Predict the 3D structure of the following.
Amino acid sequence: MKNPFKNDDLDEVKENEETQDDSVEDTEVAEDTKETEEVDSADVSESDKLKSDYEQLNSQYMRLAADFENFRKRQEAEREALLRFGTENALKKMLEVLDNFDRANKALENIEDIEKYKESFALLQKQTKDSLNKIGLEEIEAEGKEFDPNFHEAVMQTPTEEYAEHTIIAELQKGYKFGDKVLRPTLVNVATAP
């Protein structure tokens, strides 16, 4: 029996199949290239967007850092001004006391009476305390009170039955506070059980 297809026909069919395979491959390559170009352009535009966002955030950060630095400097300047104003105000109140010390010193040069001297001294002491009280200085009360380690410092303990235990018998050095802050605790003698 004879083959109905000739060798030429068979070769032609093979060539058609190869051509179709090549055209399918070319189409797939073209589509892949197109997708790659789209992805590359998307990557480039996304990269540009990220760079733009980064630059914008960096710019915001730099402005915020500069604003904070300016705020810090302003706060420091205001704090220094307040301290300077407070000190200036305190010194102005103490100037009167200094003037009175000068006046008293001149007046006492010719005074031979010790009672006048005592009166002048007591007056100056009272004026000094009043000026300091106006600034905010307060004496810490101690004698006869119960010992409080927040305000008192016990430097002596005396066994006694006259006072209740932990009662302050004597004030050895005055303590002072400014508002709620203790500037110097009162040095005290505290009663203990015999």
